[in-house]
Amino acid sequence: MAIHDGIHRRFLTFEDEGGLCIVDTTKKIILINHSFAGLTKYAEDDIWAAIRFRSVPRRYPEGLLKDHKDLLLFLKADVLAKRVGLSTEADPYGHVPQINLDGIAVVSPI
User: What is the extent of the structural domain holding 51?
Assistant: First the structure.
């Protein structure tokens, strides 16, 4: 799928049930390429909400730390492109708008 930025094709997205890849073709960088525990696309625009993937099963919280909080990520190509400089080796998702949920998410975002 191509997302139009004005009259030029700038972003390419590849999506399946659990993952999303967004490429900025102008800057030749991958803005995000990740599997998620939950991924939902907003019907009217190319915006996604995602629950960050974690290898511990979500339905078995006894394996988690008591104070664990899942991350809800907001993924929109032009926002990621503008914030890409906030990503660092220590914080590779620094460019992704996100909030901590108050606990563990067990379903996809709505």
Answer: 2-100
Cα distances from 90 to residues 42, 46, 75, 86, in angstroms, run 30, 28, 20, 11
Q: Look at residue 109 and tell me if it is in a domain.
A: no
pTM for this model (two decimals): 0.74
Averaged pLDDT, groups of 10, the chain, 110 residues long: 57 87 94 90 87 66 67 93 93 92 76
In angstroms, how far is CA 100 from the centroid of its own chain?
13
User: How many Å apart are CA 72 and CA 29, to the nearest integer?
Assistant: 23
Number of domains making up the chain: 1
